[in-house]
Design goal:
five-stranded mixed β-sheet; 33 strands; 19% strand
């Protein structure tokens, strides 16, 4: 970094340096120097409401707020003095005025910032008085709010607006009557991520389900990785082993996260109760072994650990079986085609790169519900960097409207042509190799624009909005990975990455799609007899959910690892012990032997970037300044280049009523479907235009017939949707869930009843 961006100064006599944009508090925390705070949170802009972080600057009158003040060259900062101690003590005395003395039953007791700071500054009595106000407790569904406990720190409003993007709560100012209220609404209208609960320093915002159920000191914290999408979010299962439903039995009481630096969606926070309760059935186990021995194939989903993927691949080799997982195989094919142009096995971007970006192009994903981690990263980039967010999708997304600067609605199925047009717009001045230049020169711009509905004006607007940006990222989702033309799309994406300063993020759909694609030798799924399913429907099914023939442990009951969208190998741990059988025990009976599943962790293929690191040697924490040292980043793996492109295929037409396989907020898979706190909306949602085309009305029970399946749904009109594409969920289908195909389908809609 250039020295012009470095500021030299001292804190309590210690020489320190600040990078451009850092505040005094940022530097102090990085250097391990304690400055008390109440309202500060690392991942948002400073709230600057508590003033506990005040410090002295030599030569400056009064106190300085360290949270929002950058240092100047040579300034001398003092973090502790008699006058600062008096100031901070008086602040705490004011905070404690009329604060209800209910620590014995408050959910925050034992981990409460107000409690801790009151003790720290030795506030033992109330020195000030104020007329208390009657303020009713609000029940907002998954969240309860007690304004009498609220200290108006503003953490909740900042994180809701700047990180999550819901912008659903605000402060209603009224002196001593001030409180948090739903923004522009009588009820709380949000995605119920629960981040407001996490950041609340007191017990004002709490989980309605958890409230009064346990004390913080009764809970054991189990570090783990979320099992619902590929973001790889860090969380802790908080488990109670005393006073649970059955004596000696553990129960997950809640999920928490390191809210200073990380975030969770509502599925991660509230969708934790998917563990299986079972005992060993020896007869069924023996039957399962015989089914494996006589099988011709194993079909499985990517809701598995890397270690389970290794076991399944070993069973394929041991028993001479085919191994089916179309969703992971499509990702595998996509990345192999990408590698031919990029010369790399792994994509270049991370969620942190998205957060730091000032320009992002999203194509092929309804990203707000496909991967909330990416949504939060885009929101952070928008709020903190003023990022230009260009969102290309056939359907608008109300959850993204607060951050999207340019929405481009392309025609269903035209992703290949759309990305080719974007590539040509971004590479107009690039010094391309002859093959790549010939490919772009061969594009029929007029045809592609007309058929995709992406006009020249929109492409020019993209060029204009990107002109002054420096940190750029392209985000590709499931709709390009599972497209019929996915491999050529991958080559075009790699071309953009190769010749521009864009980094590339390719978002897998399942929790461990990426890991499975790097580990398993997958076969194209064909119709064969005698198939054993692992978390998938087959002739004989072994699964951790649904109506399986043999049950196995769920992902919150296993040790193992996943690979996140960041290409990071992340450990997860057992929250609830499982008394039934595991895949490792099945494999052992079939001659693929290991004492524990995690014995496979150091054997993960180094040719794919894994390291020969034992599971127990994997770190699993965040440092005091937010550095993520969980697991490890996959090693870079070079691949031989072979740059060639196919001509863009004729762009398809999807006429009539089209359904899009997309789950509602908080729902991802059978695990979330089983979670009792999560809303389970299994309706077909569409616009009035869709209803007219399908000849159905709001509330009708309809049968949806496609080439792949048939399902009964209730149709709901959704005022936020437009056009003739409707949203159809799949999270509730359990073992029948179909993955690995293009998510748009022409459907025949038949009304069953009114």
């Amino acid at each position: 970094m250039s020295k012009i961006n470095i500021t030299n100064f001292t804190i309590d006599g210690r020489s320190v340096t600040a990078n451009h944009g850092e505040t005094i508090l940022n530097v102090a925390r990085r250097e391990g120097i304690y400055i008390p705070t109440m309202c500060y949170i690392e991942k948002t802009t400073p709230c600057a409401s508590c003033r506990l972080c005040s410090v002295e600057a030599v030569g400056v009158d009064g106190f300085v707020l360290s949270c929002n003040t950058p240092p100047t060259e040579g300034i001398e900062i003092v973090t502790n003095s008699d006058s600062l101690q008096t100031e901070r003590t008086n602040i705490m005395k004011l905070y404690d005025v009329n604060h209800p003395l209910e620590c014995g039953v408050c959910d925050k007791s034992g981990e409460c910032d107000l409690q801790n700071k009151t003790l720290e500054f030795d506030v033992s009595q109330q020195n000030f008085t104020a007329r208390d106000q009657e303020r009713s407790i609000e029940n907002w569904g998954l969240i309860n709010y007690n304004p009498s406990l609220c200290i108006l720190c503003e953490k909740c409003t900042h994180v809701c607006n700047e990180v999550i993007g819901d912008d659903a709560i605000d402060l209603q100012f009224g002196g001593y009557k001030s409180k948090v209220v739903p923004k522009d609404s009588d009820i709380l209208d949000c995605t119920f991520c629960g981040e407001c609960i996490a950041v609340c320093p007191v017990g004002a915002l709490v989980s309605s389900e958890f409230q009064y159920s346990a004390n913080a000191w009764e809970l054991s914290k189990i570090p783990a990785t979320c099992a619902h999408c590929s973001a790889g979010c860090s969380l802790e299962y908080e488990v109670k082993t005393v006073g649970a439903a059955t004596a000696g039995q553990s129960e997950i009481m809640r999920v928490t996260n390191n809210f200073e630096f990380t975030s969770l969606c509502g599925a991660g926070r509230f969708g934790f109760d998917f563990d299986k309760r079972d005992v060993k059935d020896v007869n069924e186990f023996n039957k399962a072994i015989e089914k494996f021995k006589s099988a011709n194939a194993i079909k499985f989903t990517s809701m598995v650990t890397n270690e389970e993927a290794m076991i399944l691949n070993a069973l394929k080799e041991k028993l001479g079986l085919k191994l089916f997982n179309e969703e992971a195989r499509n990702y595998q094919k996509f990345m192999r085609a990408y590698s031919k142009v990029s010369g790399k096995l792994h994509h270049s971007a991370t969620l942190d790169a998205v957060k730091q970006s000032d320009a992002a192009i999203v194509i092929g994903s309804r990203i707000s519900t496909d991967n909330p981690g990416v949504r939060y990263a885009l929101t952070t980039a928008s709020r903190h960097n003023g990022a230009k967010v260009i969102y290309l999708h056939p359907m608008e997304d109300a959850l993204m409207q607060n951050v999207v600067t340019q929405m481009i609605r392309y025609e269903v199925g035209t992703e290949e042509g759309v990305l080719a047009l974007i590539a040509k717009a971004l590479l107009t001045e690039a010094d391309l190799d002859e093959t790549s230049q010939n490919f772009l020169n061969s594009l029929d711009d007029g045809y592609l624009c007309a058929e995709s509905n992406v006009g020249e004006e929109e492409l020019e607007m993209i060029q204009k909005s990107l002109r002054r940006t420096k940190n750029r990222v392209i985000i590709l989702g499931n709709d390009v990975i599972n497209h019929d033309r996915a491999e050529n799309i991958a080559r075009i994406a790699a071309l953009i990455e190769e010749y521009t300063d864009f980094s590339l993020l390719i978002v897998p759909s399942e929790v461990n799609t990426l890991g499975v694609s790097l580990i398993c030798d997958l076969d194209e799924e064909t119709s064969v007899n005698s198939v054993v399913g692992y978390n998938a429907k087959a002739d004989y099914t072994v699964a951790s959910f649904g109506e399986a023939d043999l049950n196995v442990a769920a992902l919150n009951q296993q040790e193992g690892t996943f690979v996140s969208v960041d290409n990071q190998v992340l450990p997860t741990n057992v929250a609830i012990a499982y008394e039934g059988y595991t895949l490792n025990e099945i494999a052992g009976a079939l001659g693929v032997e290991a004492e524990y599943s995690i014995d496979y962790t150091p054997q993960l293929p180094q040719t794919s970037g894994f390291k020969a690191t034992a599971f127990d040697d994997l770190e699993n924490f965040l440092t005091h300044d937010g550095k993520d040292v969980r697991g490890y980043i996959l090693d870079n793996v070079n691949r031989e280049k072979s740059v060639k492109f196919e001509q863009i295929a004729d762009l398809p037409e999807f006429n009539g009523t089209v359904i899009y396989s997309s789950n509602p907020v908080l729902q991802f898979n059978p695990y979330t479907a089983d979670a009792k706190q999560l809303e389970s909306d299994i309706s077909l949602r569409g616009s009035a235009q869709f209803a007219a085309a399908a000849r159905i009305a709001d509330g009708d029970e309809v049968e949806i017939q496609t080439s792949l399946s048939s399902v009964i749904r209730v149709f709901k009109l959704d005022a936020e949707l437009k056009g003739t594409v409707a949203l159809n969920p799949n999270f509730d289908l359990g073992l029948e869930r179909t993955l690995g195909s293009y998510r748009y389908e022409i459907a025949k809609i038949n009304r069953v009843s009114n």
